[in-house]
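Contributing new records

If you add data, match the layout below exactly. Sequence lines come first and carry their own label; structure lines follow with theirs. Keep one chain per record. Anything else will be rejected by the validation script.
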Amino acid sequence: MNSRHIASIAVGALVVLGTTGCSMISPQATTIQYSAAEGVNVYDEGPLDVRNAFIVANEDGSAGNFVAAIVNDTDDSHTLRIELGEGGSTIPFTVRVPARTTISLGAEGEDPILVEGLDTPAGADIPGYFQSGDADGTLISVPVLDGELPYLAPLVPSGSETESQG
């Protein structure tokens, strides 16, 4: 009788271990950071966070509107330096973000930043360098989209825009 009791405990332990063993060695998907939207996120690189950054380009990819939410959770104003492109053909611009503020470029009444000389068609990525405060900065691939989706259509730069912001 004693050996049956020990055997049933051993079988029960094997069943518990067999059904939960995978979760012991596999990472939990909810702990992995990822961008759940069209754009990319830049976290932990200085005092500013960049969320959902992307570019909506015109048909030939010669110009596009940079869209992102820039979050400043600090008590001081900070400047975000952005460079799009690579090598000698980078397109630099800056955005000043007041303390405890989120600037939503391309939404909530904020204009997106027009990027002329983009030379990147929709569907491709463009290298983007983001730096704020004393941080070294981050190089990340920024997606270039078109205006086919109804909510992106108003963000396609029109032919009459000739002034670049920055």
